[in-house]
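Consider the subject:
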Amino acid sequence: MSSDAEHLMAQAEKKLNAGFLSSLFSSSNRYEDAEELYTKAANQFKLAKKWKEAGDAFSKAADMQIRLGERDEAATRFVDASNAYKKVSPQDAVASLKQAIDILTERGRFQMAAKHQKTVAEIYETDLVDLEKAMTAYETAAEWFQGEDASALANNCLTKVAHLAAQLEQYQRAIELFERIAASSLENSLTKWGVRDILLKAGLCHLASGDLVGAQRAAERYCDMDVTFAATRECGLYKSLLEALEQGDPDVFTGYVAEYDKMTKLDDWKTTLLLRIKKSMDQSFT
């Protein structure tokens, strides 16, 4: 299969390197033919699991579409290239997606651009483990989603930023984002049910920052923000943990966490923050 793909690539190059008279009278046909051959070669490389070669071929096909003035088609080919590169080279995957995003934003297709920008963020987060670049990319995606009135998608991206900010111990940034997301979610009947979890996350960031006075004020403010919050298990946990921290009792703290976890399984992000808070208590206790 890869030999077939290489033959198709050679044919495409031959089309492009046609003589002067041929290019003078039929340049668009040359580019169309080359684009078709590059795309066929890319798909053959995909079948052979030659991902770098597939990405290169899709990129060449994208270049042909640009020469033909078909920029939307070029964006699609750049996305195809990125999907192939992602198997072997996350950096190349990001570079190809950015080329697609540039075309999409230029043409005013911001929701599609935001979707691909989110993918860029995910590659930075998971494959390249560059959390600062991931946060920047998620924030850009959120801005574009918000501009297209896709608030739920925007909040999803901002939640990722808040999670990563807390992971990097940028607690104030995380708190501000969680509070912003909570306020936005309260305005929508489909998302307001999840506000209790968002406010708990903001509260855990307050506790992790070590500012117990600020944490107490936040607890009161969150109950005012969402009138249902005070009666939730999330609020109960937050206030109980704050009380345990004020008492400086790690065992009481652990007991509250275990009791909550029996009824509502704690996710990895909350568990990480709770372990950090507990560790700081243990250090103070000793």
Summary: The chain has a mean pLDDT of 94. The two ends are 66 Å apart (CA to CA).
